[in-house]
Amino acid sequence: MKRLKVFGSLIKDSLDTITHGSKKYHLWMAFLTFVMLAGMYCYSIQLEHGLSVTGMTDRVSWGLYISNFTFLVGVAAAAVMLVMPTYVLKDIDFKQAVLIGEGLAVAALIMCLAFVIADMGGPSVLWHMIPGIGVFNFPNSMLTWDVLVLNGYLFLNITIPFYILFRHYQGKESKPNVYIPGAILSVFWAVAIHLVTAFLYQGLQARPFWNNALLGPRFLASAFAAGPALIILVLAIIRNFTEFKVKDKTIKKIAMVVTVAAQINLIMLISELFKEFYAPTHHSESAYYLFFGLDGKDALLPWIWTAIPLNVLATVLLTFHKLRNNFKVLFFCCFILFIAIWIEKGFGLIVPGFIPGPYGKIAEYTPTGIEIGVTLGIWALGAFVFTILAKTAIGIELGKLRYKK
User: Transmembrane segments in this chain: where (predicted)?
Assistant: First the structure.
């Protein structure tokens, strides 16, 4: 009963915290609410008319929704780069950032699930994914593995920070023997969620663009570059607009993680390009379409030729120690690297896998306004969830939120 009373007090105090703030905070939340409402309106149109209102067809059946899903799985997995040093290796420099990283992972996973629901057409078909009721097809289907690892990772990223914050809310220290086993499990689970997502594509032999042994490791490398890059940007905003002051040393250590991952990701990209273009076969047509166009079709050229230079520029700048320690340069590099990997793992990966089709026909894909609206709404939902989680967590960590006996 006492724990329920404390939990009720925490909920009450959290609601009070997230409904009060500065003018900038209220404007930010109002903006996110507006974008979410616009996304809901677009989604209502999709529910009424079906997926015909999107740019997807029977030729290109995965588009903007699955592109964002694939990218966000990596963002969620990146929390492990803070969890392992903090909880397992006892690196105190990461301690300030780990709860923020796990909050981002929760928001990213919620967005992942939302994008899957949007891509399925509507929530009414979700019963197909419920074991024992629908056709779950476990363990043969890689999709069912993906459902399990995503929901399991979401559970871990909710329960571990909640336990720590719940203890701190009561003015008590969290017990390592309670959360360390879950933290260690989450390290392996984080790798699993992105590898399983990569295996979804790798296992499709009819799509040679994805049927690549390097896809899984490259997914991890790009995730450990884009995810921590986003964490750095979020930490920069938090320390500028809140009393939660993140040390420079913490940001610099995360920047090193971003740099190494970006370098590995770039090396793997060069390896893939060599494989596709040094001795091209008919299986290289998807790559040719992506980078140079085929038969006058070149819808993805502006996307990929924006992503690659941004990727290279960010990686080169981050490689130099003096430039990386200049926070203005660091924040710029993190921003363009995040955008580059979003393009590369989105449009640059998903759409070309369908082009050309099995009979050589090229059917290009362009997202519609409805798709873009739903996508922006889901991103706003993620930002809204993260803002709520971060504001509560920061209040507890600063000692402003405490249980009053």
Answer: 27-46, 66-85, 97-118, 147-166, 178-201, 221-242, 254-274, 300-320, 329-355, 375-396
